[in-house]
Amino acid sequence: xxxxxxxxxxxxxxxxxxxxxxxxxxxxxxxxxxxxxxxxxxxxxxxxxxxxxxxxxxxxxxxxxxxxxxxxxxxxxxxxxxxxxxxxxxxxxxxxxxxxxxxxxxxxxxxxxxxxxxxxxxxxxxxxxxxxxxxxxxxxxxxxxxxxxxxxxxxxxxxxxxxxxxxxxxxxxxxxxxxxxxxxxxxxxxxxxxxxxxxxxxxxxxxxxxxxxxxxxxxxxxxxxxxxxxxxxxxxxxxxxxxxxxxxxxxxxxxxxxxxxxxxxxxxxxxxxxxxxxxxxxxxxxxxxxxxxxxxxxxxxxxxxxxxxxxxxxxxxxxxxxxxxxxxxxxxxxxxxxxxxxxxxxxxxxxxxxxxxxxxxxxxxxxxxxxxxxxxxxxxxxxxxxxxxxxxxxxxxxxxxxxxxxxxxxxxxxxxxxxxxxxxxxxxxxxxxxxxxxxxxxxxxxxxxxxxxxxxxxxxxxxxxxxxxxxxx
Length: 473
Hints:
Elements: E1 11-15, H1 19-30, E2 35-39, H2 42-51, E3 56-60, E4 62-63, E5 66-67, H3 68-75, E6 83-88, H4 93-101, E7 106-109, H5 114-143, H6 154-167, E8 174-177, H7 184-193, E9 202-206, H8 212-220, E10 221-222, E11 235-236, H9 238-241, E12 246-250, H10 257-269, E13 271-272, E14 281-282, E15 286-291, H11 295-300, H12 306-312, E16 315-318, H13 329-344, E17 348-351, H14 353-361, H15 367-381, E18 385-387, H16 420-434, H17 439-446, H18 450-459
Parallel strand pairs: 1-2, 1-3, 3-6, 6-7, 8-15, 8-16, 9-12, 12-15, 17-18
Antiparallel strand pairs: 4-5, 10-11, 13-14
Helix pairs in contact: 2-3, 5-13, 6-7, 10-12, 13-15, 16-17, 17-18
């Protein structure tokens, strides 16, 4: 079976008293690269399952000395249990219902076609592979702490390396750059937690949230009666509060020029004065500043002090947008799902393949913050179980307002070919384009299943899906 990644060869057990059936299935599956064992009785099959694990078990219902259905539960023992496919020469609705109730994943009537057998095995192995990947993701999520960057992509590994480098210099000023929502404050917290200042406070301030006068008082504090409305006893500023730790100045590019000059003095002299004060106070803090702007351009435009820029830009950590670390989306999504699900007290087990495809193909202009909001929305909407496409939110430019209806106009044949094959090829291509290659929706509109649609895409050489510019639900 191609495109499947298992620790070893997938293992299949065939339990059937007919040697011709056993050997025919063995040869067919071995040609697909699977490890196959056979058993001529239910007891032999149970012994093999108890001694080693199998991924798929083919079980004949009519076995000598034992009813196949009565042995089904014992054949599914193991962690994870094997997928049991029932083989029967006298299939009835009652038998099928009873087999599925006892845990069979499918029922196939004899005589069977090789395509049917291979399709069942592939589906089973693909599902087990997805479950293995989900288990790995969930285990990895549990290992992460609240101050660890989530991700394994090369882009985020570079950020982690940069953090480790600067963490060993606890007094060095750091400038964190990146788009809004990429996690600049988390990077600042990581720098703090991995440095010798981790036992001191981490204090964050958004420079864009306050007016110039309020921001100055918040940073430096003030003496009693320093200005109208000041507290009689005065107030310590954040430089004093953060002593021994880290002061994070978010959106430093929004700071007014006069206040930029006072911040420059703190960085140069390692001391500050309260508003209205005359005494210098030591500033035992590391400054980590962040911005989503290009400070170099702001310097050239005269909107940011050049000398302050060079003081801040001792070490730079650039946080990439989510679109440049798309490989991290599954891990981030499961991290947020685990975190939010526990907060809400919901038993949410993961994401369906379709919903994860949707998450991975959206461009995420709001970056990690937008992804977290999307997962939180899905957690609220989904009652329990797995997050599906229908639980994902409608983003700006989304398609739940009726604009996603398929254009049912005529399909115009290209060229001189007027065959049924040509018509079907262009119909499939049109529906895929109209649904932005949402495989589930396209298959539903065409009245076929996803596997058949994938086969038609391959046969008609329609190519790979384009990257979508929005989430399609």
